[in-house]
TrEMBL record:
GO terms for biological process: ubiquitin-dependent protein catabolic process. Pfam families: Proteasome (PF00227), Proteasome_A_N (PF10584). The keyword Nucleus applies. The proteasome is a multicatalytic proteinase complex which is characterized by its ability to cleave peptides with Arg, Phe, Tyr, Leu, and Glu adjacent to the leaving group at neutral or slightly basic pH. The proteasome has an ATP-dependent proteolytic activity. Residues 5-27 form the Proteasome alpha-type subunits domain. The lineage of its organism: Eukaryota, Viridiplantae, Streptophyta, Embryophyta, Tracheophyta. Keywords: Cytoplasm, Nucleus, Proteasome. Gene3D superfamilies: Glutamine Phosphoribosylpyrophosphate, subunit 1, domain 1. Coiled coil: none annotated. This is Proteasome subunit alpha type. It comes from Arabidopsis thaliana x Arabidopsis arenosa. It is found in: Cytoplasm; Nucleus.
Length: 250
């Protein structure tokens, strides 16, 4: 049935579905997963790096985590080239707001403006929807710490814990069981690592296959975005019993 109605993004099927937008969401299901969890004192983002070949030079910069402004960061699942365009758009919008009003852009306003751009690509002929989902983590003075998830249709929503990418259904069901409202950032990091280790396709979770970032407030009251180094990740994985400590060579 879909074959007659999936040639353009602008054609509704008789059941009221936009097949091209649904196909874009399917593309994200094949990407490395990303998980975001809200804690009472911050937001934690964790992402799975897909190492396609051992000959590939792993990037020194992050592949899944991006800083948009001092108070907002995001995790990405999907087509990275599409994500880069949207991340640049979001960064420009955040800086324009700061330049105009001399204060950081509210997190939801930034997410909504980016989703408006995404939605435009589902409504005009000849355009392809962005094949990327985002998890936005941020803090503002209006609502404190926030976590948002957006998809290629331009929809977004606020979440306490969310997963996008491969095996997101399994990850969501574990999060639903184990998430606690008053969890600290340390407990949330442990939960995020546990969920990723249970849902990712590869057998063992190592620092090379993982990215972890946190958004939290410093004692002085400023928002800090911190990405864990590979050494820090290895210590965390050993601490939480996901990997065994490396044997010391004599």
């Amino acid at each position: 049935m879909s074959r007659r109605y999936d040639s353009r993004t602008t054609i509704f099927s008789p059941e009221g579905r936009l097949y091209q937008v649904e196909y874009a969401m399917e593309a994200i299901g094949n990407a490395g997963s990303a998980i975001g969890i809200l804690a009472k004192d911050g937001v934690v983002l964790v992402g799975e790096k897909k190492v396609t070949s051992k000959l590939l030079q792993t990037s020194m910069s992050t592949e899944k985590m991006y800083k948009i402004d001092d108070h907002v960061a995001c995790a990405v699942a999907g087509i990275m080239s599409d994500a880069n365009i949207l991340i640049n758009t979001a960064r420009v919008q955040a800086q324009r707001y700061t330049f105009m009003y001399q204060e950081p852009m509210p997190v939801e306003q930034l997410v909504q403006s980016l989703c408006d751009t995404k939605q435009g690509y589902t409504q005009f002929g000849g355009l392809r929807p962005f094949g990327v989902s985002f998890l936005f983590a941020g803090w503002d003075k209006n609502h404190g710490f926030q976590l948002y998830m957006s998809d290629p249709s331009g929809n977004y929503g606020g979440w306490k814990a969310a997963a996008v990418g491969a095996n997101n259904q399994a990850a969501q069901s574990i999060l639903k069981q184990d998430y606690k409202d008053d969890a600290t950032r340390e407990e949330v990091v442990q939960l995020a690592i546990k969920v990723l280790s249970k849902t990712m396709d590869s057998t063992s979770l190592t620092a090379e296959k993982l990215e972890l970032a946190e958004v939290y407030l410093t004692p002085s009251g400023s928002v800090k975005y911190h990405v864990h180094s590979p050494d820090s990740l290895t210590k965390l994985l050993v601490k939480h019993g996901v990997t065994q400590p490396a044997a010391e060579t004599s």
